[in-house]
Amino acid sequence: MADSSPFKHAKADDSAGFLLWKITALWQRRLSAVLGEFGITQTQYAILASLRWFEEQKEATTQAHISEYARIDKMTLSKAIRKLEEDDLVVRDQSATDSRAINVRFTVKGKKVIQKAVVAIEQADDEFFSCLTERQLEIYKSLMVSVISKNG
What we know:
This protein is mainly alpha-helical. It contains six helices and two strands.
């Protein structure tokens, strides 16, 4: 490297951040194609999938819990939920146990959409990562969990 270069690495792919950028771009392109069939965005999918997961796990379905779990900032979450309401996929109501909390619930239409979308995304997930062996995938997921927990 030239002394005047601001770059730390000899090759761009030696940068963990740049690799993250590239894989994220590829993954988002795949997600957009799949979710386009359902008329929802990636953020909306993250909200709906989190909500579906919370229902199965008997966890709170509050906006705050969704925001924390999916790592979506509160303003973005609120706008996305508003759009999901307009599309008749969810409804919001005041929590009966906490006056500060807003619960999010599926409509009948929303339950049908997320059921199909989760299956489609999980299939896309399997296809996208099929280039890795089971062991490599385990290592990848373990590393991602470590990075998220240390930076979250």
